[in-house]
Design brief:
alpha+beta; Heat Shock Protein 90; 2 domains; 5-stranded mixed sheet; 11 strands; about 55% helix; rod-shaped
């Protein structure tokens, strides 16, 4: 079972970074394009204002034109603007119309105000060239005013918006990455612990049997027939231990599938349990019925593991005398269906999906990996399905396996 990220994981991370940079770059490009368009609109507005001033300056009836200019052009301006003469001097007396959207302390002296506005003008001109207002006198064109202007509050906000957005997203990604890394480490730790305990659980049955057979040998060492039968069972348990080792070595690698008689494979597992049921102290009948000539492409050691897990799960669920575990094998549209039914405690309808989740277990000594591994073996390695077909509290549970039949 691979516990660390491989090349696919690295490629996903690189792809996510590329997408993140693409989104950030696209946001910056779009926002900058929007800012440039708004700046161009403001420039056109100032140019319109300058053209209006030129028209008024050259008009023979300026009074009405000035009113129109103030009401329709100057008043709606929402960006900082200063109207000066050709020498960049501000007319403080006409501040209401010639200084727009700039906060200043009106209690300052005239010299201090001139110095303040001179600095403002220099700041504006460093970013944008002033618009020149010209007056035609005979054959000469005279510059009689300049309009200095800066960006509106909206443009200033838009300039910083993408950087703030990218910063927030970056912080969110970093926090998310750290959080998910911690969750991943915790899950990996739990899986390792669970795998270790599942290994102990798997070895527990044959080891317990071996201890039982050794006790029988001590009691009947003078009976050759009994010793021979016991030696045969010890050999079976040693083979079982070897199978368990082989199974764990298959997790994480693609197993080899072969056409195998499903009835015989399942019955082999049942016979193993039947010979060892007396040692559990429970009176449970395990039966099998159905079509005995169905072949499917399976990996026998892993498939047997699934059947064992389901039978063990059924044995643990039965807490009454005269327990029953019945297995039915049948064919349905070129599929092989295996129903494993017990008369145990049953599963609550809200918990049916949880039984296959790693770490979930209702048993005090359970580690919640048996059914999870079974699901992976059936669905990922055998392209089949495994699910809870039916269950009722106090009546029992039926698990269903579906795999493809070999034609």
């Amino acid at each position: 079972m691979k516990m660390s990220g491989g090349p696919a994981s690295v490629n996903i991370k690189i792809s996510l970074l590329i997408i993140a940079f693409a989104i950030g770059g696209g946001t910056l490009f779009y926002t900058n394009d929007l800012v440039n368009k708004l700046q161009e609109k403001e420039k056109q507005y100032v140019q319109f204002f300058a053209n209006g001033l030129e028209y008024v300056a050259n008009s023979s009836e300026p009074e009405g034109d000035i009113t129109f200019l103030f009401e329709n052009i100057i008043r709606p301006i929402d960006f900082p603007m200063i109207l000066t003469n050709a020498n960049n001097e501000v007319n403080l007396q006409g501040a209401a119309t010639e200084i727009r959207n700039i906060r200043y302390d009106s209690t300052l002296s005239e010299n201090e105000l001139q110095k303040y506005f001179t600095n403002k003008i220099n700041e504006m001109d460093a970013v944008r060239n002033p618009i020149l207002v010209k007056y035609v006198q005979g054959q000469d064109t005279i510059i009689f005013a300049k309009i200095h202007y800066g960006d509106s509050e909206l443009i200033n906000q838009l300039k910083f918006y993408p950087y703030i957005q990218i910063l927030i997203v970056a912080i969110f990604i970093i926090i998310g990455y750290i959080g998910f890394s911690q969750i991943k480490k915790s899950e990996q730790s739990n899986i390792w612990v669970g795998m270790a305990k599942e290994t102990a659980h798997q070895f527990g049955t044959p080891i317990s049997s071996l201890m039982g057979w050794l006790e029988i040998l001590r009691m009947h060492y003078n009976d050759p027939d009994k010793v021979l039968d016991t030696a045969e069972e010890i050999e079976n348990d040693v083979e079982k231990l070897n199978k368990i080792t082989h199974r764990f070595s298959k997790i994480g690698s693609k197993p080899e599938l072969k056409s195998t008689n499903i009835y015989d494979t399942v019955n082999k597992v049942i016979e193993y349990f039947k010979r060892r049921l007396p040692q559990t102290g429970k009176s449970i009948n395990i039966s099998i019925e159905g079509v005995n000539e169905l072949f499917g492409n399976i990996n026998a050691p892993l498939f047997e593991w699934v059947i064992e897990n389901l039978i063990k799960n059924a044995l643990d669920a039965i807490d009454q005398e005269n327990g029953k575990i019945s297995i039915l094998i049948k064919e349905n549209r070129n599929k092989i269906e295996i129903d494993i039914t017990d008369n145990g405690k049953g599963i609550d309808i809200k918990r049916r999906k949880d039984v296959f989740r790693p770490g979930y277990s209702t048993k005090r000594r359970g580690w919640g990996l048996g059914l999870s591994l079974s699901k992976r073996i059936i669905e990922e390695y055998h392209n089949g399905k495994i699910f809870v077909k039916a269950s009722a509290i106090g009546e029992g549970t039926t698990f269903k396996l579906i795999i493809s039949r070999t034609i």
